[in-house]
Amino acid sequence: MARYFITGAQGCIGAWVVKNLVDRGQEVFVYDLDLEPKRLGLLLNPGELSRVQFIRGDVCDSEQLNAEIQRRQIAYIIHLAGLQVPTCRANPKLGAMVNVVGTINVFEAARVRGTELQGLAYASSAAVFGPEEDYGASPLDESAPLLPETHYGVFKQCNEGNARVYFKDHQLSSAGLRPYAVYGPGRDFGITSGPTKALKAAVAGRPFEIKFGGPVSMQFVDDTAKTFIACAESRKRGARVYNIRGAVITVEAFIQSVEGVYPRFKGLIRCTSNPLGIASNLAEHGLQDEIGTVPTTDLQRGIQATVQIFERLQKEGRLDLSDLDG
Ligand SMILES: NC(=O)c1ccc[n+]([C@@H]2O[C@H](COP(=O)([O-])OP(=O)(O)OC[C@H]3O[C@@H](n4cnc5c(N)ncnc54)[C@H](O)[C@@H]3O)[C@@H](O)[C@H]2O)c1
């Protein structure tokens, strides 16, 4: 059976990638600094969790990373380990080590795996784009200029460039995906975790302020996870990079949508007027060409699915509210 190696799999997107693969009966290796299945424990029961193999590892440790990928005879790599915008802003050197050098280490190990490797997908980000006002009104495809305004966005742009060079120099194919604001259970850190935290706070009956406002593209985490898996498995060649469109909306309209589905949440969720500074009207024709239909959960259904999981956790006494103050 083909083996999947997921870096950063204890994170939000990673946990959903692992859940999808376990649901399909695949053999999954989690490579993460963190051994605690905090988010995975929300999605998998103990029996399912016991089928996942956990490796404590740092993507900056090229020797360990390479040894694990070769020794475990990995067929598919999905590279998600990374530090988010606030951490890269506070410590750009660490951000570059993990997000750029860590990604080089993953590509090196993939190169060594040679023709045994069947697919490599990695997380870039919509943060490679600049603010809305840098672009025109039409949806942006992958040919739009990259004008990132954060170290994080620059690191992701650098990874896309390195992926191109790996294909040119070594014919190593890869697919980079550019998620925007991923939401859903497990999303508890980073600027764009605000909408998910707001839903959690509302379930707990607490007020919450999302620290940004204006245009955003919202993507349900299970869709994002399925898209990563589909890109890793697509067998296409080249250094491909894709936008994901998601639900293009404003934060203010998202709040209205939530209140439309759950009138009892009225007045609990607010947002500031600070823009995110990343263009949100993205085209995903490239992704459609790569995988066919892009998994896209309608926003209202994504909100309902998220709230239902939070309500279940609350009933079980497992709704962790510690992220709401962060
Ligand atoms: N969540 C989003 O909205 C979003 C949007 C665009 C891009 N992305 C990218 O997608 C990827 C996954 O995002 P996420 O939201 O799941 O992130 P997350 O912060 O929830 O998880 C990241 C995981 O990486 C692990 N990690 C950090 N440094 C590591 C290291 N040196 N070695 C090994 N593991 C390490 C962490 O322990 C954590 O489990 C990231 O690369 C992120 O930049 C996410």
Protein model, in words:
The protein has 326 residues and is of the alpha/beta class. The chain has a single domain (3-325), classed as Rossmann fold, CATH 3.40.50. The protein contains 12 helices and 12 strands. It has helices spanning 12-23, 40-43, 46-49, 62-71, 85-90, 92-113, 151-170, 194-203, 221-232, 251-261, 285-291, 299-315; strands at residues 3-7, 27-32, 53-56, 76-79, 119-123, 174-178, 181-183, 208-210, 215-220, 239-243, 247-250, 269-271. A 7-stranded parallel beta sheet has the order 3-2-1-4-5-6-10, sandwiched between helices. The protein has a 3-stranded mixed beta sheet with strand order 7-9-11. Strand 1 (3-7), helix 1 and strand 2 form a beta-alpha-beta unit. The structure holds nicotinamide-adenine-dinucleotide.
Keywords:
326 residues, alpha/beta, 7-stranded parallel sheet, binds nicotinamide-adenine-dinucleotide
What is the CATH architecture term?
3-Layer(aba) Sandwich
User: CATH topology, what is it called?
Assistant: Rossmann fold
**Beta-strand residue fraction:** 15-25%
> What structural class do helix, strand and pairing data support?
alpha/beta
Number of strands: 12
The helix count comes to 12
Which secondary structure elements does this structure contain, and how are they paired or packed?
Elements: E1 3-7, H1 12-23, E2 27-32, H2 40-43, H3 46-49, E3 53-56, H4 62-71, E4 76-79, H5 85-90, H6 92-113, E5 119-123, H7 151-170, E6 174-178, E7 181-183, H8 194-203, E8 208-210, E9 215-220, H9 221-232, E10 239-243, E11 247-250, H10 251-261, E12 269-271, H11 285-291, H12 299-315
Helix pairs in contact: 1-9, 4-6, 6-7, 8-12, 10-12
